[in-house]
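Please, structure for the following, as tokens.
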Amino acid sequence: MRMVAVVLAGGSGLRFGADVPKQLLRLGGRTLIEHCVAAFNEAPGVDEVLVVMPATHIGEAAKLLDGGGFSKLAGIIEGGTTRPGSTRQAIAAIGARLRAMRVGDCGVLLHDAARPLVGQRIIADCVAALSEADAVGVAVPTSDTIVVVADGVMTRMPRRDSLLRCQTPQGFRWSVLARAHDLALADPDFTPTDDCGVVLRYLPDVPVRVVAGSEHNLKITYPRDLAIAETLLQAADRGGVSS
């Protein structure tokens, strides 16, 4: 099955507090988006890479990526005003390409540009899982006890061994992802932030397979996260960190 990786870099990164979107911040001499595109460009199971960017930064992204030797880069498209909107833009672009190729379906890996250290093992595991499953999520165990709170009072403490923290990429057959988002778009009361969550809610009969993530695959949200990523990247360069 043909596999398209989508790097979702359409957000503004306001929580980070930088002058530019955080996907254009530098880590180890490369921007976060370059790290992400490079990871999927190097992955044997990925055929194409599509990047979703804010309209105001598409030109800048093109300058960065067009000269980066990324042979699998298929295009840079404008994102939506929300995360689900950006996903739908990618769904539409991939659908148009499938129709042009006269192909009925493909695999899609959706990855946050804020996770620049995604490893080849995770990508390969997602690709392999999609050969058998229609939806795949990457997750890691939580080391903290999680409580459910209502009105400032603890109401429930779920078993920790049943709780995982989601990461990306998240993988789907294109047809499944498109159907789930069509149903979500028709529901004015649902504002999804996670594509596995869209499938879980609107296509409950579709199992979402879990692939083991990595603490190395952290999300850059605040400045301290960038410092941690820098340390992990240096350790990986020395052969001291496995992703």
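The chain has one domain: 3-139+165-237. The radius of gyration is 18 Å.
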